[in-house]
Design goal:
This protein has about 300 residues and is of the alpha/beta class. Among the domains are: about 70 residues, membrane protein fhac (Ubiquitin-like (UB roll)), CATH 3.10.20.310; about 130 residues, Cell division protein FtsQ/DivIB (Rossmann fold), CATH 3.40.50. It is about 35% helix and about 20% strand. Strand 4 and strand 5 form a beta hairpin. Helix 6 packs parallel to helix 7. The protein is elongated, with a radius of gyration of 50 Å.
């Protein structure tokens, strides 16, 4: 017979906990990892690691490579071959040079002075140096050089325009309105005669000389030229060896007065060798030798009575 009270199940006893280690694991970082993390937070350290170290490796490797003479020679030869292959391409080749704005003589001088041999690479052309060399020519005032499509080197030149002929001790030369030398007179063929000036320092006052030539237009073909005297003033030289001596200041106005006097008295057609206008308050004239002799004879006759005796 079974008992009325059920038997209780045996009570389960929980397993004992594992023994606690003598030294439990510390979650904090170790001293070395802490120091590394602190270093990595430093900007200078990060730059050294990211830039300095790779740069050192590259430089060190290049140093080892170029320490060998054969390696350096091969590298330079490779660079030269690469450069020649690029410079020799058709799009960089210059085949012709065209010069505009220059006369035939100046164009020939430019071509001879540059001495270029086409075709050639555009990398071999120093346009700045070429422009300086062209502008060094006496007849060239300004030059402009440009490389254009199709292998075309365009040179645009502005020549100096001869304004007067300057007679120097070495010979006659052409100069422009600013006094710059253009060419020797014998080297150029002039389309029309140019004003003639002479004397030391005449090239420094070409503008004044041209103004005097304009004022002396009524003289026409009688005007031979202007001579600079003492680098201070001008003499107007006429073809019949007459001269008009002008002052240092107001030369154009003085010449106008002389021409006005000539219109009123025809003085330049008389026996006057020099018409001196250097003193604004007094007009002086120098007679020709024949007129001076005639004047002397008249004075002698004035002192002699009709019987030929000397007057008392």
């Amino acid at each position: 017979m079974r008992p009325l009270i059920a038997e209780r199940a045996p009570r389960r006893v929980a397993a004992p906990p594992p023994p606690i280690a003598d030294h439990p694991r510390d979650p904090a970082p170790s001293i070395w990892s802490y120091r590394i993390e602190r270093l990595w937070l430093t900007p200078a350290f990060r730059r050294v690691v990211r830039l300095g170290l790779p740069s050192f490796v590259v430089v060190f490797g290049l140093g080892l490579y170029f320490a060998n003479d054969q390696s350096r020679t091969e590298f330079v030869a490779h660079l030269q071959e690469l450069r020649q292959s690029i410079e020799g391409r058709p799009e960089f080749r210059v085949n012709v040079m065209a010069i505009s704005g220059a006369s035939e003589a100046v164009e020939n001088d430019i071509r001879a002075y540059l001495g270029l041999s086409f075709p050639m690479s555009s990398f071999d052309l120093d346009l700045t140096a070429m422009r300086s060399r062209i502008e060094a020519l006496p007849a060239v005032a300004q030059a402009d050089l440009r490389l254009q499509a199709g292998g075309y080197l365009a040179v645009n030149v502005r020549e100096r325009v001869p304004a007067v002929v300057w007679q120097t001790r070495e010979g006659a030369v052409l100069i422009d309105a600013e006094g710059h030398f253009v060419a020797d007179l014998a080297a150029r063929t002039l389309d029309s005669p140019l004003p003639l000036i002479g004397g030391d320092g005449a090239d420094l006052v070409v503008g004044e000389a041209l103004a005097l030539y304009a004022a002396a237009a009524p003289l026409g073909d009688r005007l031979l030229g202007l001579v600079r005297i003492g680098e201070r003033r001008w003499d107007v030289v006429l073809k019949d060896e007459r001269r008009i001596l002008l002052p240092e200041a107001g030369a154009v106005q003085a010449l106008d007065r002389a021409l006005g006097l000539h219109d009123a008295t025809d003085i330049l057609n008389r026996d006057v060798l020099r018409l001196d206008l250097r003193d604004a308050d007094r007009l002086s004239v120098t007679l020709t030798p024949a007129a001076m002799e005639e004047l002397r004879q008249e004075r002698i006759r004035a002192r002699t009575n009709p019987t030929g005796e000397q007057s008392g």
